[in-house]
Design brief:
The chain folds into 2 domains: 156 residues; 137 residues, no CATH class. It has 2 helices and 21 strands. It is globular, with a radius of gyration of 20 Å. The strands form 4 sheets. Strands 2, 3, 4, 6, 7, 8, 9, 11 and 12 form a 9-stranded mixed β-sheet that branches. Strands 5-1-10-13 form a 4-stranded mixed β-sheet. The protein has 319 residues and is mainly β.
């Protein structure tokens, strides 16, 4: 037997709240499917993913003893096409809208066929070994959360927005963005905003495969729009303001919480709000220009450790 633990975390999109109303988790192995009710005192378990950025995790399943072996997993959520704070929803500056997913069906879950139930299906098998097994369902909302479009007034969570990671096989990356003037270092935030023009900005750091050059770093986009030597990001992390006890901004920081061990490149942008994963956004777009302003190379991640990398690397944050 082994113990199964599952949490959820997030790489956020440009929203204020992304609330998912979770119902149950199902593991499908060679035998009978195992179902775990994740409700909170009989009510749906509401998780605002933007409260669990970086290495922060909200637990769905804890300490469940199950047979060792190979499994696939389904997570079931309640979906809603109308604005409803009792269900899944997204909140932006414009208000609240419903949140749904196009994936449905059963992998052995009770109630999985209910009309208001959406399914997040992980088709890649994973192993439950003897001892403690800690997994995280990591949501990449910048890639898989689709804003209302056409005649739809609700958000859509695509199956590509979430992946399952084993805590024993990942590390983390964190750092800060230089936003102060100096004789030796560029003000990364201000310089990016000058290059972008306009008045609307959203800072983010993008994670790319090793040796991806600045000129080859592009946005999240359909696979058909990626041509050599362009490289799409693996994930992104929102840059958050750091506040002191008086709510004054003292700096800007980012964090990737669950990164498979290896070597990576990073890119910083201040126009993440213009990254529509359904289309290719380029620097010369008239309405939604997107570009990576500055890069960092050779970012090494090892299991169980946090790698620190600032923009630029020579920046030393004030303690």
């Amino acid at each position: 037997m082994g113990t199964f633990n599952l949490g959820v975390s997030d790489n956020p999109a440009d929203a204020e709240i992304v609330n998912i109303a979770f119902k149950q988790v199902v593991l499908k192995g060679n035998g009978e499917s195992l179902s775990f009710d994740v409700s909170d005192s009989g009510e749906l378990k509401h998780v605002d993913l933007l409260q669990f950025q970086g290495q922060e995790v909200e637990t769905l399943v804890s300490g469940q003893s199950i047979p060792t072996g190979e499994y696939q997993m389904c997570i079931y959520m309640e979906k809603s096409e109308v604005a409803n704070e009792e269900s899944s929803y997204v909140k932006t500056a414009d208000g609240i809208a419903g949140l749904t997913t196009n994936s449905n069906g059963s992998c052995g879950g009770v109630g999985a066929e209910d009309p208001n139930t959406g399914r997040l299906f992980f088709n890649k098998t994973f192993t439950i070994a003897a001892g403690s097994n800690v997994f995280v369902a990591e949501f990449n909302l910048a890639k898989g959360l689709q804003a209302p479009h056409g005649n739809k007034d609700y958000w859509t969570l695509k199956p590509t927005s979430v992946q399952l990671v084993n805590n024993a096989e990942v590390g983390a990356i964190e750092g800060q963005i230089n936003a102060s003037d100096s004789d030796t270092l560029d003000n990364v935030k201000a310089d990016c905003e000058v290059a972008a023009g306009g008045t609307e900005f959203a800072q983010a750091v993008y994670l790319y495969p090793a040796d991806t050059t600045l000129t080859n770093m592009v946005d999240f986009r359909p696979d058909a729009d990626i041509t050599t030597p362009q490289v799409a990001p693996i994930a992104s992390a929102r840059v958050n303001a750091m506040l002191d006890q008086n709510d004054e901004v003292t700096g800007y920081e980012y964090e990737f919480g669950f990164v498979t061990a290896g070597s990576y490149s990073l890119g910083y942008t201040c126009v993440a709000q213009n990254d529509d994963p359904e289309t290719a956004n380029n620097p010369d777009d008239a309405e939604m220009p997107f570009f990576i302003h500055i890069d960092e190379q050779t970012v090494e991640v090892t299991n169980g450790t946090t790698t620190e990398r600032h923009f630029p690397m020579a920046f030393v944050p004030v303690s």
